[in-house]
Amino acid sequence: MAEEIIYKKVTRKADKGLEGKIIAKHGKQKDQKLKPYLVLQYLLKYSDENNTRTAYDIIGYLEGCGIHAERRSIYKDVEDINRILLMLQEDVDLEEADMMIAEAEESGDEEEIAELKTIRYDRSKKGFYVRQRKFDVNDMRLLAECVYAAKFIAEGQAKRLVDVVCDFVSEEQAQRIRHNAFLTDRVKTDNRSVLNNISAINEAMSRHIDGQPHTPEKISFKYLKHSVSDMSKQVERKAGSRYKVSPYQLLINDGNYYLLAFADYAQDMRTYRVDRMKDIRFTGEPRDGDEIFKTIDIKSYTKRVFSMFGGERKLVEMHFANALLDAVVDRFGTKYVQYGRVDEDHFSVTATVEISDQFYGWLLGFGDSAKLIYPEELVEKFRAYLDKIRALYGS
């Protein structure tokens, strides 16, 4: 690679100021105006606090681009790049940027001088590097992992988006981010139009489009589902009939995108998996269901819908083994919930729960480490639920 070209013969003599005698290229060189830009791009891609690049590394890269450079010109390019970037970052003119640098150098404050410069020189490593970007490498790693964790993003799209994220760090840092992200194994959607669906839904909900007023409108779409007869692809629900809904809110739960919308057919709020939506179209009809949406508390609604609880609300008391405390807190939280100690091995929870078979199933999932205590009529219903399941397996 061009960046790996090493000028073994010129290094020692160049340090004595003899560059011109070693590489004798006279007269105006082609594309010299591009040199500062290429220097910056090279350092952005191949340098960071732990990986510096010498003037000769940069010269080798430029030679690979067909541009001749001398060591002293690299220092001049770096100086000019820092001046221009400071001007842009501080929103001042070039003369003011020069004054800021001059005042810092006159004060002799090394930290202040370094802070003003995007490209720094590490004396111990004898090389240049681009100082910490606007985003920390750990921030970029987190964003990359979020992309990979999102089930609504197809694998190919995830790789492309991670490449975009990695443009904000050096090449070596990017390799570490990609490596770490690929260690996780996620179930991804096969629907490659998810991001387009999100964009279309947002546009339908917008009150302004391209600076012009817009009335939020209904959308229609086909909805997909899995079929046991062919698990390799999803099929259209209701034989391809279109759903018409009034979109109100996009939600994310367990790595999936959902749309909260007022459904024409149900005359109530429903949620839809965005990755299962197909062929979204704008209807031009104003939304319905505004009054119902205003009455919804999003936090409690999502907890009810995504937990699949959806029944009569009752205050219940349950006992759990101590090892389940984190799991129970994840489910119920700590606000408006009462916790207490039962004995050395168990704790109690008193919370308002929406009673349904899904709630019973969730409780049953903990086996003999969980027990429903109160109210008694609910305990009887739970027994009936257990008897119904037991009946499936005979006496």
Mean pLDDT: 82
* Total helical segments: 16
Order of helices and strands: HHHHHHHEEHHHHEEEEEEEEHHEHEEHEH
Overall structural domain count:
4
Main sheet, how many strands, which sense, barrel? 6 strands, antiparallel
How many strand units?
14
Rounded to the nearest angstrom, the radius of gyration is 31 Å
The backbone outline, from C-alpha atoms, is: elongated
Contiguous low-pLDDT stretches (5 residues minimum) are 1-27
* Alpha-carbon distance between the two ends: 74 Å
Helix content: 40-55%
**What percentage of the residues does DSSP assign to strands (E)?**
15-25%
Helix-and-strand structural type: alpha+beta
Written overview of the protein:
This protein has 395 residues and is of the alpha+beta class. 43% of the residues lie in helices and 24% in strands. The strands form 4 sheets. Strands 5, 6, 7, 8, 9 and 10 form a 6-stranded antiparallel sheet that branches. It has 4 domains: 129 residues, no CATH class; 46 residues; 102 residues, no CATH class; 85 residues, Alpha-Beta Plaits, CATH 3.30.70. It has 16 helices and 14 strands. A hairpin with a 4-residue loop joins strand 1 and strand 2.
Descriptive keywords:
single chain, six-stranded antiparallel beta sheet, 24% strand, 4 domains, 395 residues
Question: How is the secondary structure organized here?
Answer:
Elements: H1 8-14, H2 19-22, H3 35-46, H4 55-64, H5 71-90, H6 94-107, H7 110-116, E1 119-122, E2 127-130, H8 137-149, H9 155-166, H10 171-182, H11 194-205, E3 208-209, E4 212-213, E5 217-227, E6 230-236, E7 243-253, E8 256-263, E9 268-273, E10 277-286, H12 290-294, H13 298-306, E11 312-321, H14 325-332, E12 338-341, E13 346-355, H15 357-364, E14 370-374, H16 376-391
Antiparallel strand pairs: 1-2, 3-4, 5-6, 5-7, 5-10, 7-8, 8-9, 11-13, 11-14, 12-13
Helix pairs in contact: 3-5, 5-6, 6-7, 8-9, 8-10
